[in-house]
Amino acid sequence: MLILAIDTALDACAAAVLDTDTGQLIAVESQPMKRGHAEALMPLIARVMKQAELPFAALDRIAVTTGPGSFTGLRVGLSAGRGIALAAGKPAVGLTTLSAYAAPVVSENGAHPVVSAIDARHDHVYYQVVGADGGALILPRVAPIAEALAASRLGAPHLVGNAAGILADRWPADAVPPSSVDTQAAPDISWVAWLGAAADPAAAPPRPYYLRPPDAKPSQDKPSRDQPLPDEPGRDLPDPAARPATS
With helix as H, strand as E and coil as C, how does 29-92 read? Predict the structure, then answer.
């Protein structure tokens, strides 16, 4: 299966082509980026497809991150993914950024749970907690940082995501320290591709999912550009035995 993976939900603009038959990424490009995804994404995808030496019609599936993430950046990726899928006549699937953050840790068959956390601003985070086997312990939600820190009762979890450092800095002094702290600006695009290969298109639509209403309603003539987008309770974590491909 050939998967085109796209991620613009957070502070990166990334795309990759995964060949699941060989277990390899045959093309990949990721650029750190806080703004400008709309201008950068389609040229980046064109370069990735040229590197892969494939036409869009040869793809079997398009995978794209659904959030949480920035209002504008997230929609750039979703629009591109859906548009390519429609033009190529292929299915598109959506994967959460929280699950993409957790996937590489779950794949290592460790003994500790995984807390994925993304900065939601105003002393809040989007977070979810999964067990070492990928099973849900706390479903995706937006909550005050103090509530997320209650995950310390689960033992010594792995902290991943762009808010992992925030949680680590405020970890309770009387709790067992986290097993690891992995602060990344965006998920690894290879895991977006692998999760996309494992997803059920009927159960993982490529659309944003809100955990909370926007802070303010945008006017009709001036859409908001900074409403945070939350995550969708996911069924998209990989089998713990799965491993990412490397190019």
Answer: EEEECCCCHHHHHHHHHHHHHHHHCCCHHHCCEEEEEEECECHHHHHHHHHHHHHHHHHHCCCE
